């Protein structure tokens, strides 16, 4: 199934100069970039985006981190895009993330794990709506698609 998913390069990824590396890995897999912008997440947006974690011991630290600097927000489309991105990201704790994954190759810390990807198609739709207006999302034909999409 063709899906869309929201991906954030978190503040640590921006600070460490890994925006291009992370975008390159997703592009290289064949996913199609539909939207991209740099923003500073407000505490309000952080609270909505991470609503499922409200009340957990790490919630305040998570909001502090994700609002600590600019992030790059993106939307990607492709076959099973939600699962494909989660697999490319690796486990939440970079120490447990497999080599070859973004977190497994590039991160060490549970909080500063570089990348967010929606965890279900339902959450993806909600998160896309939180971060993007409809006119910021580009539905276009990519000529390479005939070599990627059967
Ligand atoms: P993921 O980002 O893999 O979807 P998640 O949604 O469970 O993971 O958690 C969101 C972020 O919160 C995660 O990227 C890092 C942080 N986090 C999760 N569990 C944590 C914990 N036990 N201690 C500290 N930070 C945690
Ligand atoms: Mg999550």
Q: What does this protein look like?
A:
With about 150 residues, the protein is of the alpha+beta class. It has a single domain, classed as Alpha-Beta Plaits (2-Layer Sandwich). About 35% of the residues lie in helices and about 20% in strands. The longest helix is centred in the first third of the chain and has 11 residues. The protein is globular. The structure holds 2'-deoxyadenosine-5'-diphosphate and magnesium ion. 2'-deoxyadenosine-5'-diphosphate binds next to loops. The site of 2'-deoxyadenosine-5'-diphosphate has 8 residues, from loops.
The gist of it:
The chain is α+β, with helices and mostly antiparallel strands. The protein contains seven helices and four strands; from the N terminus they run E-H-H-E-H-H-E-H-H-E-H. The protein has one domain: 2-Layer Sandwich (Alpha-Beta Plaits).
Low-confidence stretches are: none
Which small-molecule species are bound to the chains here? 2'-deoxyadenosine-5'-diphosphate, magnesium ion
By DSSP (H or I, 4+ residues per run), the number of helices equals 7
In the CATH hierarchy, the architecture is 2-Layer Sandwich
Short descriptors:
4 strands, Alpha-Beta Plaits, binds 2'-deoxyadenosine-5'-diphosphate, binds magnesium ion, four-stranded antiparallel sheet, 150 residues, alpha+beta
């Amino acid at each position: 199934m063709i899906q869309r998913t929201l991906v954030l390069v978190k503040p640590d990824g921006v600070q460490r100069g890994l925006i291009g590396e992370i975008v390159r890995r997703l592009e290289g897999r064949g996913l199609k970039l539909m939207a991209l912008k740099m923003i500073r997440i407000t505490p309000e947006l952080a609270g909505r985006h991470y609503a499922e974690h409200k009340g957990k011991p790490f919630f305040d630290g998570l909001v502090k981190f994700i609002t600590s600097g600019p992030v790059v927000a993106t939307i990607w489309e492709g076959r099973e895009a939600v699962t494909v991105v989660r697999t490319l990201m690796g486990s939440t704790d970079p120490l447990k993330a497999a080599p070859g994954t973004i977190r497994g190759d590039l991160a060490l810390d549970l909080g500063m794990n570089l990348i967010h990807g929606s965890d279900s198609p339902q959450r993806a739709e909600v998160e896309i709506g939180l971060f993007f207006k409809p006119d910021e999302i580009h539905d276009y034909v990519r000529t390479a698609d005939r070599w990627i999409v059967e």
